[in-house]
Each structure stands twice: as structure tokens, then as C-alpha cells.
Design brief:
Rossmann fold; 12 helices
Length: about 375
């Protein structure tokens, strides 16, 4: 029997594994470039190197609606932080600076596509038609809250027709759920795409591995959008980028400027269409570096004669007025009834529990309305 010669170690990219272990890369140079090279369409302040794809094609009304939705998210965020400062609500996951990424991803999808948000991105429901008062009621957890006070502020229950799952406040737990929904859509031969959002820290969670690995193995129509900047946050990975992680799972990876609404829209739209064609999922890394998303988009809208300065100012004032009115209407509303604690939990409460609920109502009525 001939003696086997020493195993040859294939060439590996720097930082891509143990050089003593034979391994084979299954992605192309173009795949690697897309996962590591930042894509931007709107010029950031001060310039900067970036790959610039073509401006996505959409009607002017789409871009005006997207800008209005960004204004709404900024106003809602400010109102929520004001309520935290007053001690009226306990906490709120800030979305300031995330507006372009949040609105860009939802604007790029169809109404039948499902969105599974993390702790900051449930504002996509506002773009899809959730009334402002319903959002504000959830912040307060009052009697008008569709979630009956059960969810953390900013993670509202949403009518099923809007195809937005309640936001998950826990890192990565929504990712296996999103993959399962996408697998169900594939089994049923529906053209539905499921998009899940996450932040940079969630890439360290085991649910990140479970969700993305399953999506890659079964080639489900899923898109994952990771928002954050790992260079500004605590180190969470040894990888060159977050998007490059997708390649190991058999997914496409794309890295875009998360403050650039057009770039996020273009990347998510392309990923959704790829998924619809049965070509598998994509991880989009929306990098939230320095820069104000409103200034860049506003300048582009003005240059394209889509929204001039006067119309923009009127739109901003209108949105801020709507948010103030919603807060003023919902702040005086009282809490849900005590019985909401067991709604959808017990079909037939015991007599002892009924007595306890009645007593709780009496005590709370004296406390809230002496």
C-alpha cells in the first residue's frame, strides 16, 4: 500500500480559520467583496470611500412617504424619552439614528412579507399603518394598549393584517422564529419573504447561529438585517465584518451604510427578490456610523425635486403635531382592568382567583381614583 503524502493546506483568507486545518472556501471573491465592502448611495458628510450602486427605482410618493415615516419615528422616539425622563414609563430602546435603516427595510418589502423585529425596530408597524395612538397607548401600557400592558414599551402588539410580529426585547430570540416562518412559507409555496432585524450584540447569541444556520441549510426565503456598528460598540466578533458571517452559513452577505435610506432600500429589495426566486437568504449589515440620516436624504429629495424645503418644514410640523396629540390623548387613560392579567391564559378562572381579581380592582380603584 502506498504511503499517503502530507495533506495540503489550501490558502485561506487572513483571520478565516485555523491554518493547520484543511478547509475550503465555498464563496466567490464577489461574495466576499459584497460582505466586506460598504455600499452607499447618498454621500455622507465629508465624503468617504464606498461602493455606490445605482439609485433604486421607485415613485416619488414612496420617497416622500419614507421621509415622513422617518420624521414620525424621530418624533415618537423623542416623546418616549421625554416620558422616561418624567418617570411615566420605565424604559425605551432609543431609535434615534436608526430611522433610515428601519424605514428603508420596510419600504423595500411587499405588504404580504412578514417582519420579525428586535427591540428597536417595531416602528415598522407605523409605516404599515398602525395608528399613532395605538403605539402611544402601548408605551403607557394603558387600557387602550392592544398588548394589555404585557410588553415592554416600544414592542407593541400589532393587528395580524399588518404582518408585523411583536418586537422581541431579548437578543436574537426572534431569529429562529423568523426562519421557521420562512420555512412554512416555502413549504406552502407562498411568495412571502420573512425579514428579521437584530443588533450587533445579538450576533453572539446562540439563537443567531440556530436561525441563520437553519435558514442556510433549508434555503428559506429569509432576510436578516443587523443594525449597529461593531467598531463603536463593545467588541463582539473577530470577523472582519458582521455581514461576512453569512458566508459560513451558506447565505449571501451585504454591508451597507445604515444611515443611507436608499442604500438600505436597495439592499433589502435585492435580497427579498433573491429569496423569492428560491436562491436563499441574505444577511444585511446596516452599519450605523457617524452622520445624520435626515440631512443626506433631505438634500437628495430636494435635488430630485421630490420634496422642497417648504414642504419638508410643513411635513415635519404636521408629524410632530400628530405625535403630541396622540400623547395628550393617551396619557390620561387608566390602566387595563386587573382581569387582563389572565386574559388568554385561563378559560375558567377559579373562584379564589375571581375573588382576588375583584379585590385587586377595589384596591386599585382607591389608589388610582381616591
Amino acid at each position: 500500500m502506498a504511503k499517503a503524502g502530507p495533506a495540503k493546506t489550501p490558502s485561506l483568507r487572513a483571520g478565516m480559520g485555523d491554518l493547520d486545518t484543511p478547509s475550503v472556501e465555498v464563496w466567490t471573491d464577489d461574495d466576499y467583496r459584497r460582505a466586506t465592502e460598504l455600499q452607499a448611495i447618498l454621500s455622507p458628510p465629508g465624503g468617504g470611500a464606498a461602493h455606490r450602486p445605482a439609485v433604486p427605482v421607485a415613485a416619488p410618493a414612496v420617497w416622500r412617504g419614507a421621509y415622513r415615516a422617518m420624521l414620525c419615528l424621530r418624533a415618537v422616539d423623542q416623546a418616549a424619552r421625554d416620558q422616561v425622563a418624567k418617570g411615566r414609563i420605565g424604559s425605551y430602546a432609543e431609535t434615534r439614528g436608526y430611522e433610515a435603516a428601519i424605514v428603508g427595510l420596510v419600504a423595500a418589502l411587499g405588504p404580504d412579507d412578514v417582519i420579525v423585529p428586535g427591540r428597536r425596530e417595531a416602528g415598522v408597524a407605523l409605516y404599515r399603518g398602525l395608528p399613532l395612538r395605538a403605539w402611544v397607548a402601548q408605551l403607557f401600557g394603558n387600557a387602550n394598549d392592544l398588548a394589555r400592558g404585557r410588553q415592554l414599551p416600544g414592542s407593541p402588539a400589532v393587528p395580524r393584517a399588518l404582518n408585523v410580529v411583536p418586537g422581541s426585547p431579548h437578543a436574537g430570540t426572534q431569529l429562529p422564529h423568523a426562519t421557521g416562518m420562512a420555512w412554512a412559507a416555502k413549504i406552502q409555496r407562498k411568495p412571502t419573504v420573512v425579514l428579521a432585524t437584530l443588533d450587533a450584540a445579538a450576533t453572539t447569541a446562540e439563537d443567531f447561529h440556530a436561525g441563520l444556520n437553519f435558514a442556510g441549510v433549508f434555503r428559506v426565503p429569509a432576510v436578516f438585517v443587523c443594525m449597529g456598528d461593531m467598531n463603536r460598540e463593545a467588541p463582539v466578533t473577530r470577523s472582519e465584518t458582521l455581514a461576512v458571517k453569512a458566508l459560513a452559513y451558506g447565505l449571501a452577505g451585504v454591508r451597507v451604510d445604515g444611515r443611507d435610506l436608499l442604500a438600505v432600500y436597495a439592499a433589502v429589495h435585492a435580497a427579498a427578490e433573491r429569496a423569492r426566486r428560491g436562491e436563499g437568504g441574505t444577511l444585511v449589515e446596516a452599519v450605523l456610523a457617524e452622520g445624520e440620516p435626515f440631512e443626506r436624504l433631505r438634500a437628495w429629495l430636494s435635488s430630485e425635486k421630490i420634496l422642497d424645503a417648504g414642504a419638508e418644514a410643513a411635513m415635519r410640523a404636521e408629524v410632530e403635531g400628530e405625535v403630541r396629540a396622540a400623547v395628550a390623548a393617551e396619557e390620561p387613560v387608566g390602566p387595563p382592568p386587573a382581569r387582563a392579567i389572565i386574559e388568554n391564559v385561563l378559560a375558567r378562572p377559579s373562584r379564589a382567583l375571581e375573588e382576588q381579581l375583584d379585590e385587586l380592582d377595589r384596591v386599585r380603584d382607591k389608589t388610582v381614583r381616591p
